[in-house]
Amino acid sequence: MVSLLPRAPYLASLPKSASSSLRPSPPAMSSSSSAARAEAVARPRKLPVLLFDVMDTLVRDPFYHHIPAFFKMSMKELLESKHPTAWSEFEKGLIDENELAKKFFNDGRCFDLEGLKECMVRAYEYIDGVEDILCCLKKNNYEMHAFTNYPVWYQLIEDKLKLSKYLSWTFCSCRTGKRKPSPEFYLQAIDHLNVDPASCIFIDDRMVNIEAALSVGMVGLQFKNAEALRKDLCALGVELPPLVCEGEAQVQ
User: Fold this and answer.
1) Is residue 94 within 8 Å of 178, Cβ to Cβ?
2) Per its UniProt record, what Gene3D superfamilies does this chain match (predicted)?
3) For the chain, which residues make up each domain, given as ranges?
4) pLDDT, tens digit, for every residue of 205-249?
């Protein structure tokens, strides 16, 4: 099992109620935060909270194959010709897509922005077996959030794959202004969720992002494939019985 634990020991038998794991509320809160925390107090909160990376953990990332093909370049050529920080600035919401188009390439060459977006949408698809896991977790009432470095184009993923059936797009870099593996991004999530970090399981395909999660006390799972993820989650006490998801035929 590729499972990494924070320095503080993580108990396989996690608390079933938010009352034992929620930290004291800060003195000043927005009305929306107050409402969310009031709801958490009003009903038991099932733990752990699951934080999912999106690209190459839930959804296939078009960057490595489809985007170079769109530009008729090899990956090496694309990496050498693209602007070194334009995409990360777009992911953090510092520039919009029109500004991205102007500075995507170092030489400022023009390209078909809408065509690029259409290429990416065609490539978006669930990684094999992952949607079944999300469905089972949802049916077992686990709280799930996206925790992803992605620009406003996350809405293109949502429009095609409807991830919000299973999780909330709570922590997107374009909305928070922070990117993994910055510890500030993880600490912001812990504060927003108002849970002990050891009650959060973070799943990502990149080890550097897992290490950042461990540094703030979260539990980390490196994603390899859906079968391994199911086993790793079960080993941590997460309830994942085989379930028939919506739209599937029941075998009588």
Assistant:
1) no
2) HAD superfamily/HAD-like
3) 49-60+125-236, 65-123
4) 999 999 999 999 999 999 999 999 999 999 999 998 765 454 444
The answer to pTM > 0.85 is: no
CATH 3.40.50.1000 fits 49-60+125-236, yes or no: yes
How far is Cα 231 from Cα 3, in angstroms, rounded to an integer?
10
Say how far apart CA 106 and CA 77 lie, in whole Å: 12
Q: Which amino acid is located at 158 in the chain?
A: E
- Cα distances from 249 to residues 38, 129, 161, in angstroms, run 39, 17, 20
Cα gap 110→96, rounded to integer Å: 16
Q: Output the 3-class SS for the chain.
A: CCEECCCCCCCCCCCCCHHHCCCCCCCCCCHHHHHHHHHHHHCCCCCCEEEECCECCCECCHHHCHHHHHCCCCHHHHHHHECCCHHHHHHCCCCCHHHHHHHCECCCCCCCHHHHHHHHHHHCCECCCHHHHHHHHHHCCCCEEEEECCCCCHHHHHHHHCHHHCCEEEEEHHHHCCCCCCHHHHHHHHHHHCCCHHHEEEEECCHHHHHHHHHCCCEEEECCCHHHHHHHHHHCCCCCCCCCCCCCCCCC
